[in-house]
């Protein structure tokens, strides 16, 4: 089955002529254009439409002379009329805006231009499509992909492409970075979808950042397309601290329903367990608990206590290096500020700096988050 994307934007296309948002501006500077979503299958079946598709097909080196069937999508109009016999593709629509295509060669395509409710997920469960095109707002596309992966509709070999791109998407470079973390491809007009699925995602990822930098949100977003995630919370209880309780509640509210939270300081033990990906948040709080438990004098720099802390750190780094499942860990970057005024503050800075450096050295990817922007260090 040949799948050609003739349009990969929202109903109005993107960029919009008079819009100065960062996404439209960046696309305009590149001379890029995402026309309203339209997909040409084997040169004979058109999903979606719009007055742009004839020119888009020509730019992609494809002819519409063999077009035998057109399936409208929500918000699209002006598709060319069929001029050839109806193609032999088996087609069904589990819901308006959702199209399931089986080609003569047995390959299967799912195009979702509308939300995927339980009836659609039930109807497509286990299909292991060859290609999935998500023509949805980005905020809906990521959880939709997680649901398709959970149901078996999207398998590891499935080529997943983002379409329906509009103002909700970040600028191109940032979108491409997020797409790699999700294991998907960003659609471009004229793209011929084929070949193997996206390359494997990094196994061990460290996300660093200062206070309120957005580091936890970045880590959570990286795993947003996973059907199941084990969230390892290392923060100890703080009875009577209302502000802390509010922060914890905000973090919990962001987590999808398929995520399971474990509150533990045994991060090394969690890393040794095979299963769904892990999100460890955060190593700074884990280290605080380790120092607290290292015995009298630990915060005052007692050499024996400090050696116990370092042994625990080395154990965690060894477990990180051999993690049994993909893992994303969050940690504080504390080495860029002023020198702490207290001995205990300096000890924490030094030991966390050592921990971060050791974990980073054993990571496949390292990010630094500043003002909500993720910078790749490795």
From TrEMBL:
Keywords: ATP-binding, Cobalamin biosynthesis, GTP-binding, Kinase, Nucleotide-binding, Transferase
Pathway: Cofactor biosynthesis; adenosylcobalamin biosynthesis; adenosylcobalamin from cob(II)yrinate a,c-diamide: step 6/7; Cofactor biosynthesis; adenosylcobalamin biosynthesis; adenosylcobalamin from cob(II)yrinate a,c-diamide: step 5/7
Pfam families: CobU (PF02283)
CDD domains: CobU (cd00544)
One GO BP: cobalamin biosynthetic process
GO molecular function, one term: cobinamide phosphate guanylyltransferase activity
Family recorded in the similarity comment: Belongs to the CobU/CobP family.
Function recorded in the entry: Catalyzes ATP-dependent phosphorylation of adenosylcobinamide and addition of GMP to adenosylcobinamide phosphate.
Name of the molecule in the record: Adenosylcobinamide kinase
Organism: Vallicoccus soli
Lineage: Bacteria, Bacillati, Actinomycetota, Actinomycetes, Motilibacterales
